[in-house]
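queue> holo job accepted (iron/sulfur cluster)
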Amino acid sequence: MEMDRSGALLEVEGLHVRYKTKSAEVYALNGLDLRVERGEKLGLVGETGAGKTTLALSILRLLPERVGEITAGSIRYEGEQLLEQSEAYMLGLRGRRISMIFQDPMTSLNPIKTVGEQILEVLDLHFPGLSKAEKLGRVARMLETVGIPASRGGDFPYQFSGGMKQRIVIAMALIGEPELLLADEPTTALDVTIQAQILEMMSRLREEYGTAVILITHDLGVVAEFCDRVAVVYGGRIVEQGSVEQVFARGMNHPYTEGLLGCIPELDSRAERLTPIPGQMADPTVQPKGCSFAERCGRCMEICRTRQPEPFESEGHSIMCHLYGPGEV
Ligand code: SF4
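queue> job finished
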């Protein structure tokens, strides 16, 4: 079915990213396609090293200099090609139209400035026309919105718990009223109760500001609770994407997603094995001729080793696997 392609907030097409070190070249993204609608909550899931964070850094053009390189593809944001924009343009975009939250809040917080000053700096950068009083008012309101009394704006990061620090980072990320929030494992370091509170708060803020969220995680439980749609990353590509209902229905899934969902039949009979999917991620310094999951896949066929599968899509549910073709998804 042909999708309506008008009005997407973000469209990533055929993205290839390579990291070059002295000893090796790592193929981190290998033709990744992704589309995010306005106001959508998308879960980006996969194991460590699958390419999730690389995608977020590519969108913001923050790949490590001289090491990470986008070698092909396109990233359109509100129809504009980000890969052709100047650094000055990107500076205006980061924190204003697209914000990012990292797993460790101290990556974003300066330990020697008060949290209020740090939130204010974002406004100074992106809203220079506002009066000081208006900016201070916005900072106070945003602190209250994320559940921190405005009176604590004069405190330093070390005076807050881990969960509170992450709330401050979220306040910094949202004060510019971005249309897109990239949240990279934002709750992984937090305990389960705080995690639930932060997700609940992000959901509420999304309702309030209409911000689209890409939630990067390895936790499908979090995706089921928080997201509208899910994209599964493996070997630097999206191997399956669809609505949370489509993917979690377990009717038709990519074998890798089946593994993440814990429904590979062989595993049931070897309960002592805790690794959800047997085997290691494919060697990222080698570009496989066929499917990158072939070495770990219990259903691998001859064709899988020689030809890369193309995505097959039906009603917005897409699977990149030779098992599926017309009439099967
Ligand atoms: Fe498994 Fe082949 Fe599908 Fe890859 S293409 S996931 S190896 S069945």
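queue> The first helix runs from residue 52 to 59.
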